[in-house]
Structure formats: structure tokens, C-alpha cells
User: Which sequence fits this backbone?
């Protein structure tokens, strides 16, 4: 954990110094996890990708101001959450229309074995989770964040993170068993 934070701080400093390779590493490391996180709020992959792309552009444009950020990972997740909520507020009547092809681009290796119909059913069940449960579920299961990292990010206790994850798993189990 300590080495990871040191590595992120080194990337952050290099990006502030306009190092394109460092930015490319940062982008590749965080783009998909942030898109998945934004998706928990927007329920729209294209919108989530746009939000994260714009955030990455802001990060690149910050230059020296980037050095003032104490925890870059916490910052980008908070910024993604805020931007996602703002985007949803601007488009309250937006309807999510995911296609099987669109979803297939984000399948993990184990999900490739699941039929497209089952995968869509699972995605729909995840989308129908309460927002906090869905967010916690995706951050832990898809983004492999620890309970502590999720608790810090969402400003809730580790116990509450555990409760949200257990609720999510129970609801998914009940929905998918039917």
C-alpha cells in the first residue's frame, strides 16, 4: 500500500512536470476503473467515458497545481463522483440504453464464459441496486479497492461499506435466483 502511494505520488509529480509517459501510465491505470465508477452513477457508458476523459484532460492541464493534491487517487475518485452527479442532474430524463455489444467491451475474463443474455441480466440487476450498494459493489468487485479505500472515498465507515456490500450481494442473489 505504501509503495503504491509512493508510486502514485511520483506519477503525480511527473505529470505536473509535463511528462507524457507518466500521464500515459496514469491514464491507463485509472481510465477504466474511473469509467466503471462513473457508470455506477450515470448508468451510461458513453457519458461515463466522457466524464473521465474530461477529468483526465483537467489533470493534464493542472500543471503545478497538481502538486497541491495530497492524495491523487482520492481526488480523482471524488472528482469523478461529483462530475457524474452533476451530469445526471443536467439530464434527469436520460434513459439508459446499453447494448450487448457495448457491454461486451467491458467483460472480465470470467464473464466471457457467461452467455450474453445472462450477462445482460446480471448488468441489469447491478444497475437496479440502490446507488450506495451499487457503488460499493463496483468499487470492491470491479475496481478491486479495499474496504478501507472505499470507506475513505465515500466518507463512510468500513462497517457501512461491509453492510452495503452484503446488501448488494443478497439483492443480486435474490434477483438472479428467480
Assistant:
Amino acid at each position: 500500500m505504501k509503495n503504491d502511494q509512493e508510486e502514485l505520488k511520483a506519477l503525480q509529480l511527473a505529470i505536473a512536470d509535463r511528462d507524457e509517459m507518466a500521464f500515459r501510465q496514469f491514464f491507463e491505470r485509472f481510465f477504466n476503473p474511473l469509467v466503471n465508477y462513473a457508470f455506477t452513477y450515470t448508468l451510461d457508458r458513453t457519458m461515463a467515458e466522457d466524464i473521465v476523459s474530461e477529468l483526465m484532460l483537467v489533470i493534464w492541464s493542472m500543471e503545478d497545481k497538481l502538486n497541491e493534491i495530497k492524495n491523487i487517487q482520492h481526488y480523482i475518485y471524488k472528482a469523478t463522483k461529483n462530475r457524474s452527479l452533476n451530469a445526471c442532474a443536467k439530464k434527469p430524463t436520460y434513459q439508459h440504453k446499453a447494448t450487448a455489444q457495448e457491454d461486451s467491451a467491458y467483460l472480465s475474463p470470467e464473464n466471457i464464459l457467461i452467455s450474453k443474455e445472462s450477462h445482460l441480466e446480471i448488468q441489469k440487476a447491478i444497475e437496479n441496486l440502490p446507488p450506495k450498494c451499487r457503488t460499493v459493489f463496483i468499487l470492491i468487485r470491479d475496481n478491486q479497492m479495499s474496504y478501507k479505500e472505499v470507506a475513505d472515498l465515500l466518507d463512510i465507515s468500513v462497517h457501512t461499506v461491509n453492510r452495503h456490500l452484503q446488501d448488494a450481494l443478497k439483492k443480486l442473489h435474490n434477483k438472479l435466483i428467480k
User: Anything to note?
Assistant: Confidence is low (pLDDT under 50) at residues 92-104. The chain has ten helices and no strands.
